Amino acid sequence: MSKKPLTGWKATIAVSMSNYIDSGSIIAIATSLSFWGAAYFPDDNGRIAGLLAAFSSNAFGAAIGALIGGPLCDKYGRKVIYTYDLLVYSLGGLIVVFAANLPMLFIGFVIIGLAVGASVPAGWTYIAEFAPSKSRGRHIGATQLAWSFGPFIGFGLASAVTPLGLLGSRLIFAHLVIIALITWYIRRNLEESEAWEQAKGGLETKPPSMFQSFKALFSWKCNIRALVFLAVIYTCWNQAASQNGIFLPTILNSVGYDQLASNLFSMLSWGVVIIGTVFFMYFVDTIPYRTHFFIGALLAIVAWIILIFGPSDSAFTAFGYAIIWGISAGPSAQAFYSVWAPELFATPYRAGAQGIIFFLVRVASGLISLIFPVILQWENGLMIDGLLLIGFLSVSLIVGTFGSPKTQGKSLEKIEIERYGRVVSAVLSK
Fold it and tell me: What band does 429 get if pLDDT is binned at 50, 70 and 90?
């Protein structure tokens, strides 16, 4: 007897769990780098740590996974990604759990990154295609909420197992593997996206090749404009967010916090992010996109100004940064990107376009991850890094505020007709 297919909020929650283990892997890496370093690269001056972070789910690994997974999601369907991505993730997690040397650790981080990159565009695409038009933002916002719980629980677990040292870090990765396998089992009852099946032009239609899909994607000026717009706002914002996520413990250590204190503080910070994300879910479908985006972007800049210009030994500086950054992370560029990207691309290009953008975003994060921990060790290193990130955040604010699309509350089909002049199918796009 077959089980009932997952629909509505049950489907949203099942899909969103990817975001929990995705962000959880980034925090697991962030909280364990010092322990891995002591065990396998004790004389590191920041370069090996930077490479591990750069090729993980925080950057290059996820970038390559998105570039591959996005087009595959458009070619073979949304469900096929969910059939395999969490199994790949679990394989990488197990390699990390039992890593006995630096090469094993590196391989495990890369495999996790590939799985994370493949799952993210598939998740936002799938939810957008079945969610009601008037609450699409709220459903997609659930992925951001799950993403926020990853660091919150991850830092909490890291605080609890800090006395265990490297064993504690292995246990954190083990819990992510267990959750990934449970989520994979639940997801077997997800149905294929109806929008994708309709755009495919019939179940027997041969899907276009990746080359044909990319060629069709770039044949539309509206697609190129959307790619540039989304890549700019997301990439610029993510330079600050990615460094906050994976190097926040390092930043806190540089201003005097020990490992346990920095983990507890980070947990508090992500608790505020959860609150900010709940407000985002509540208001995203009602407050005009432009106004909502501007508020979040401005608060992000204020947070980094407080961190780099406030007294380094003041509790006001640390807590002010944590609270304001946490609130800003609700209506963040990533949150709006996850809503806008499915809206701005037709069904045959939806996941592939997101794969390209996510690739660019994570490559940029990887490049800055190579130098960020090194600069932090310089005199006034936090100031230099902070000013660079404020510059990126300012660009995101300006471009996102003035370029906010007028798609709120409209069905994906209506948006598609407004942008393309017709409903685009995979057959007609070849």
Answer: very low
CB neighbour list of residue 321: distance below 8 Å, 6 or more residues apart = 269, 303, 304, 306, 307, 310
Q: What CA–CA distances, in Å, run from 357 to 43, 55, 106, 181, 361?
A: 36, 17, 25, 28, 6
Determine if residue 130 is left, alpha or beta; phi over 0 gives left, psi from -120 to 50 gives alpha, anything else beta. Answer: alpha
Is 339:214 a contact under the CB 8 Å cutoff?
no
Q: Taking 90 as the threshold, does the pLDDT of residue 198 lie above it? A: no
- φ, ψ (nearest 5 deg) of residue 6: -75, 130
pLDDT of 428 > 50? The answer is no
Q: How far apart are CA 9 and CA 111, in angstroms?
A: 30
> Closest by alpha carbon to 109, among 61, 147, 64, 157?
61
> What pTM value is reported for the model?
0.85
* Residue 309 CA: distances (Å) to CA of 72, 268, 294, 304: 46, 21, 22, 8
Q: For residues 270 and 245, what is the distance between their CA atoms, to the nearest angstrom?
A: 10
Please tell me the predicted confidence (pLDDT) of residue 404.
Answer: 95
Count the neighbouring beta carbons within 10 Å of the beta carbon of residue 1. Answer: 2
pLDDT tens-digit map of 76-106: 888 888 778 899 999 999 999 999 998 999 9
Q: Which tokens go with 424? A: 């685009």
- Residue 202: burial class (beta carbons within 10 Å; 0-12, 13-18, 19+): exposed
